[in-house]
Amino acid sequence: SSTMSLSEAEVQSARGAWEKIYVDAEDNGTAVLVNRMFTEHPDTKSYFTHFKGMDSAEEMRQSDQVRGHGKKVFSAINNMVQHLDNSEAFLGIVTSLGKKHATQLKIDPKNFRIICDILQLMEEKFGGDIKASFEKVTNEICTHLNSIYKEEGW
């Protein structure tokens, strides 16, 4: 569906939750990539040619390229969060990212679960209420990404 299911109050509390974690976008983005994606799904490292030969989480955490990508992921989500009250703009952002990852980068859609891992980080740092207030946002993002992938034949 092309309409967002967030009320004004939900948009506000989601933004409040996001701000807490976005303050340290590079560190938190890196943490999500390294602690979750690469550690729990090591096959995902194959998408990033510059991670070859990096085995320890510590090495990855220090890598400028890993940090840069962590920040990039968080910036993209931040862009979506800024448009939660405008479904057309929000969907435009998610659609172009989804298409790029599906067609150009050929990233397996299961790797977008990393977005949901942000919830885990939120809970660890700020508790369950903060996590709960952002859950609808990650659901919207993941739902739309999945439908874009289906359209692209995945």
From TrEMBL:
It holds the Pfam family Globin. Its EC number is 1.15.1.1. It comes from the Eukaryota. Keywords: Heme, Iron, Metal-binding, Oxygen transport, Transport. It is an enzyme of class 1 (oxidoreductase). GO terms for molecular function: heme binding; iron ion binding; oxygen binding; oxygen carrier activity; superoxide dismutase activity. Residues 5-150 form the Globin domain. SUPFAM superfamilies: Globin-like. It catalyses: Fe(II)-heme b-[protein] + nitric oxide + O2 = Fe(III)-heme b-[protein] + nitrate; H2O2 + AH2 = A + 2 H2O; 2 superoxide + 2 H(+) = H2O2 + O2; Fe(III)-heme b-[protein] + nitric oxide + H2O = Fe(II)-heme b-[protein] + nitrite + 2 H(+). InterPro entries: Globin (IPR000971), Globin-like_sf (IPR009050), Globin/Proto (IPR012292), Globin_lamprey/hagfish (IPR013314). Coiled coil: none annotated. Belongs to the globin family. Involved in oxygen transport from the lung to the various peripheral tissues. This is superoxide dismutase. It comes from Acrocephalus arundinaceus (Great reed-warbler).
